[in-house]
Amino acid sequence: MSGANTPFSASGRSTPLHLRDIVHDVIRHYRHEKDSEAHRIFRQSAGHKPKGAVPQTVNPDEETVPGIVHPGSTGVIYCSDRAMANGFNYASSHEWANLGQGAPEVGQIPEAPPRPTSIPLPEDSLEYAPTTGVKALREAVANLYNQQYRQGKLSQYTYENVCIVPGGRSGLSRVAAVVGDVYCSYQIPDYTAYDQVLSAFKRLVPVPTALDAENKYRLDVEQIKKDIRTQGLEVILASNPRNPTGQVIEGEELKTLVDTARENSVTLILDEFYSWYMYPDDEKDFGRSVSSAEFIDNVNQDPVIIVNGLTKSGSFLDGGANHPLQLAAIPLLDPERVLQEKIALQKHFKHKRDHVLKRLEELGLKVEVPPVATFYIWLNLEHLPAPLNNGLTFFEELLMEKTIVIPGIFFDINPSHRRNLFHSPCHCFVRLSFGPPLEDLDKGLDAIGRVLKKAKKEGGSAFGHSYKKSIDGIHQLDKHI
């Protein structure tokens, strides 16, 4: 969903780091990371080597295509590959606790509308759909947003403000593909796909801001205002609610962000995929969701692009969304059904969140900033004994207990990969998902408990070594270890 087609003006490119600074950083990188088996495994994975001072080499044992650069893997893909090296497969996934993948449970939720179990395939749905999406579905999205966020406002969305895409990544890619040479603001930590967007689309010059626990990982609107004035920002990219920290800005704070974009002619790209996953304290607030659409003045002029989705079901390259599935989605956007779905979803996931937070605290892992949205917990490990006090090693140890989490460094949006992993503000964290069913969550929490018990009994020397390597990478990796 977008506002007017706001033109982008060129603002130049950022000054590169001096080569000497890059070389010094690479030297520091090896001094710190070479001592950790988990970090060496990570760096040997395709696409994870530092860029800049050290040329990227081609593995002669792999089939390669001239001119093709490995894009690197997302956190979920890397962690799934490492899990498979440790015996995980989807056929026997019931033996594992997958607290890593950003996917909610897919079964029936109590008091929610029934899940569709089949979809009709009318003959015309087998034709290509319009690239912008089926008109009736675009109208349904516009009507839902007007009903939820724009009642009583003069400016209303129409189907022309809506584009249907096959997934969030393809939506972001579409937007990035038409952005000119601009400084683009983003925050750390944030959704892993932004790293790939900022790496692939070189006309977006990345300008990072690190968020911290003391401010509850909130997107700092005052800092953004300052950066607009002093750095010439023209695009702001952010998730709200935030992945992986589970925080959200709303109300006056969100209004100020939208007003700032409008008043300064800065394009605001907000990824609102978790807008329904809100956990209010007051019973009467169940069913409420959040969106910047509430604070847009003119839907055809304000430079705000909203990325949202009907499901959390997949990531696809862009060729237009599936035609039959678009038609099947139209009745799912009926406002009364949506409200029933939101209330059921929020009650169910709040119960799971509270259950996981309580069990983590019983294990001595108190979460500094509990999530108020999404279905993620940003867990700080720095108080654990070394080497369990970093996300990569903690992740590898849990793999041996048949449990998957995501190391925090994947949420350090670092397009050039120059930063020493040990210097990353996300290094001591893992992201836990409470999307899976409750029994899977308990299975994973039991595994965390076993690792902590082993640490208490045997000390740090029991950890950080003897990890299984992936079959494809073992030969090359062993030459470096």
TrEMBL record:
Cofactor(s) named in the record = pyridoxal 5'-phosphate
Q: Which keywords accompany this UniProt record?
A: Aminotransferase, Pyridoxal phosphate, Transferase
Is Transferase included in the keywords of this UniProt record?
yes
The GO molecular function terms of this record are: pyridoxal phosphate binding; transaminase activity
Q: Where is this region: Disordered?
A: 43-67
What's one GO BP annotation on this UniProt entry?
Answer: amino acid metabolic process
Q: Which Gene3D superfamilies match?
A: Type I PLP-dependent aspartate aminotransferase-like (Major domain) (3.40.640.10)
Q: Which residues form the Aminotransferase class I/classII large domain?
A: 96-313
Family to which the UniProt record says this protein belongs:
Belongs to the class-I pyridoxal-phosphate-dependent aminotransferase family.
Q: What is this protein called?
A: Aminotransferase class I/classII large domain-containing protein
The record lists the organism as: Pycnoporus cinnabarinus
